[in-house]
Specification:
Oligomer: single chain
Number of strands: 0
Low-confidence stretches: none
Shape: elongated
Mean pLDDT: 76
């Protein structure tokens, strides 16, 4: 085992980690999905369904934004405006809108 100085860890911290290594070694189901330090709650089925619903809602946001952009452009009298995929991408970049 390397010395404490080589690891740069306080001796008491290292001893605490070694004493609790079994508890620290458990992996949550959410970590298997690529997330760090986030375990499922008391009701994993509820959380899974809500996560699925949120993904569906996010996928519907893009068409809604395009429709609203076309609607606002028409009200402002902007002729020839089309809210296409390229416009939406640039709009999101300009306004720092991130999807996840």
């Amino acid at each position: 085992m390397p010395t404490v100085n080589a690891l740069g860890v306080n001796r008491m911290t290292l001893l605490r980690i070694l004493d609790n290594r079994e508890a620290l070694g458990t992996v949550c189901a959410s970590q298997a999905k690529g997330r760090k330090r986030q375990c499922s709650g008391e009701h994993p089925e509820l959380e899974e369904r809500l996560e699925h619903w949120l993904e569906e809602a996010r996928s519907k946001t893009v068409p809604i934004m395009k429709v609203k952009a076309n609607e606002v452009a028409a009200k402002l009298g902007i002729a020839g405006f089309v809210a296409n995929k390229g416009w939406l991408l640039r709009f999101k970049l300009r306004n720092r809108i991130m999807h996840r």
